[in-house]
Amino acid sequence: MSDYRIKGATGDWEIVIGLEVHAQVVSNAKLFSGAATAFGAEPNTQVSLVDAAMPGMLPVLNGECIRQAVRTGLALDAVINRWSRFDRKNYFYADLPQGYQISQLYHPLVGEGEVEVLLDEKDESSAKRIGIERIHVEQDAGKLMHDQHPTMSYVDLNRSGVALMEIVSRPDMRSPAEAGAYLRKLRAVLRYVGSCDGNMEEGSMRADVNVSVRRPGEELGTRTETKNVNSVRFVMAVVEQEARRQVDLIEEGGEVVQETRLYDPDKNVTRPLRSKEDAHDYRYFPDPDLLPLELDEAFIEECRASLPELPDAKRKRYEGLGISAYNASVLTAEVETARWFDALLETGAEAKQASNWVNGELFGALNRLGKSIGQSPVSPAAAAELLGLVADGTISGTIAKQVFEIMLETGQGAAAIVEEKGLKQTSDTGAIDAEIDKILAANADKVQQYRDGKQQLFGFFVGQTMKAMAGKANPQLVNERLRAKLDG
Questions:
Q1: Rounded distance, CA 131 to CA 114, Å?
Q2: Class of residue 149 by CB neighbours under 10 A (exposed 0-12, middle 13-18, buried 19+)
Q3: Is the pLDDT of residue 245 over 90?
Q4: How far apart are alpha carbons 101 and 120 in whole angstroms?
Q5: pLDDT tens digits for 155-201?
Q6: What does CATH list as the number for 429-487?
Q7: Could you tell me which of 62, 111, 451, 460 has the fewest CB atoms within 10 Å of its CB?
Q8: Which 8-state DSSP code applies to residue 171?
Q9: Helix axes 176-193, 232-251, angle to 10 degrees
């Protein structure tokens, strides 16, 4: 149970959160027409006669959209309903040419499933399961643009008819952190599956945030729904702000109204949009132009067989290779990172060493350069070559950092850089002994202090030896030879 509470003037309050996530299906065509779906096209250039609701136009179901929704359901351990049906949700809005939206209210394509989130990436015991109530497939509406003309609003129908999966969670979340973790995990699963690109800033994934408050353990309170929130950070902010608003309202003697609200990120507040409609307000009825959808077992099995290794399974596999729980969690959080790391492992790189290097050196460099792992100037094969030189003792970890910097700048391979710049680590005990003897002779007073019990001086001798050998001495041998001479 989450112990997150809103502190009110009259005591503690618990938040109850549910999310309805609209995820745009990856498909070259819309749900019921052949029009294109690419982001960023000129307004009204991707609109078929069906999308514009011209008289006599009939919808034709795009099978690829159904396949992607079924694959998503399977990835979320959800029930796939063999029989589902499309309904008309009737309402008037200027960007909805038909005057209704084709959706699935009564018989959705996908039933109950769940998502497991880690609330602390370093702690496996912080796992929490969040239920999914349903996933239904529906068409998106168009878009109104109010900032293009001083007195008129423009309508862009490019998005009209684009296939959406509406993924409805159970009200199982109890804190902003849980809502954020759920949304991040859901987005990761969709990206692994390839059914949605998860680009919230482009609007291809957005969340309606349902929030209510109650005294811990009491009946559910009245909820509000904040529409179209387009980032994980904003979802967490909506939960916090809306819960605080509701608590203050109730404690002042007011009542929470069931309504739809909008979030203003500039002011970090939610404000009312309209009173919340119930299903009967939309006059839902089965769409007479579309037959019920019936799936056979072979189709479902084909969808199952097409799924990749998913984040949780990949994380457990990485941990089985000796990678820490935290590193495994970071490496599997985004599909792009996991694919890059898998390619590195396929070269034969040692898993633990490779995971530490990716999470430390590589991510540090990419952050500095403002690049994603997909834009990394160093490929998995090039990284494997560098790590191999450290593993076989050709160069030290310190020299590897210098080599990596040159690789980033020049694109050269690690072995070529080491050869060209003469950076090979020396394991010549004669050369190491000669330098150690010089350093011990020059620091006779410190040698005596060390032998009298000041053990911390050992690091000083190591540092001096490495410096004298320009960092190229094998650190393990330096340690061994120093111990032998100082303790002998």
A1: 4
A2: exposed
A3: yes
A4: 40
A5: 999 999 999 999 999 999 999 999 999 999 999 999 999 999 999 98
A6: 1.10.10.410
A7: 451
A8: S
A9: 150
Q: What share of the chain is helix, strand, coil (3-state, %, to 5)?
A: 40, 20, 40
- The residue among 182, 145, 148, 161 whose CA lies nearest residue 34 is 161
Inform me whether the pLDDT recorded for 277 exceeds 70. no
The DSSP annotation for 31-83 comes to SSS--B--TTPPTTSS--TTTTT-TT------HHHHHHHHHHHHHTTPPBPSE
Q: Which pLDDT score, from 0 to 100, does residue 386 have?
A: 95
Contact in structure between 2 and 172 (CB atoms under 8 Å): no
Which positions ≥6 away from 348 have C-beta within 8 Å? 384
Residues 109-163: tens digit of each pLDDT: 999 999 999 888 777 778 999 999 999 999 999 999 999 999 999 999 999 999 9
For 436, the token pair is 């150690």
Q: How many angstroms separate the first and last alpha carbons of the chain?
A: 60
3-class secondary structure, 179:
helix
H helix intervals, 2-41: none
Long-range Cβ contact pairs of 119-125 (< 8 A, separation 24 or more) = 119/177, 119/178, 119/181, 121/325, 121/326, 121/329, 121/330, 122/325, 122/326, 122/329, 123/325, 124/325
Q: Please give the Cα distance from 364 to 436 (Å, whole number).
A: 35
Residues 458 and 482 sit within 8 Å (Cβ to Cβ): yes
pLDDT for residue 398: 83
- Residue intervals of the chain classified under CATH 1.10.10.410 are 429-487
b/e sequence 252-263, b meaning 16+ C-beta within 10 Å? eeeebeebebeb
- What tens digit of pLDDT does each residue of 349-378 get? 999 999 999 999 999 999 999 999 999 999
**Of 431, 435, 390, the residue nearest 414 (C-alpha):** 390
Burial class of residue 2 (count of CB atoms within 10 Å of its CB; 0-12, 13-18, 19+)? middle
Does pLDDT of 447 surpass 70?
Answer: yes
Q: With cut-offs at 50, 70 and 90, classify the pLDDT of residue 427.
A: low
- Rounded to an integer, the average pLDDT of 255-276 is 90
